[in-house]
Write a structure and sequence with these properties.
Order of helices and strands: EEEEEHHEEHHEEEE
Number of helices: 4
Shape: globular
Distance between the termini: 20 Å
Radius of gyration: 17 Å
Amino acid sequence: MSVQLVGKMDPVARALHITGNAPEPIEARLIGDVAYIKSASLDGDKPWMKIDLTKLRPGSSMRQSFDLKSQTGIVGGVVSAEKVGDGRYRGIADLEKAAEVASAEAGMRDGIKSTAKLAKDPKAIPFEATVDADGRLTALSYTVATKSLGDVVTEMRMSDFGKPVTVTAPPAAEIEEAAEETYQFL
């Protein structure tokens, strides 16, 4: 299965807008601690589900999916890297070390720990990274070989640093609040 997402985000303002397939079409918006998700697989009478991220468990995969730092958290566990081109690096990351230095904010540490439990060898995660002339991470890819799910490949590209990002909530008439019992599954 392949999941492809394209989006824009402002991590300081906690604003995010993504579209893609997972595997069906999906759209998500984040404004502060409120997420809006539109997907055919969601139950409900309205197209958008509103989720209060503060109600999610700290290790919730939903919470982590809205945090770019969570996706780039393996950088904190780099144990070796070699330059393979202009601004390009290849190396190995240790998920256990990454979890030790990760922030507990938004469930980042718990997310890395969960991934480490799934990995065949959490101490040897191959990665490739690219940085621009200002030292900003512009590309990151890594593969986690899991014990039972096969390889989980993450590829990210970042650009347009400093450009304003505006995210608006969907129309109120199209939003349904997530039911309280839904939070136990997210």
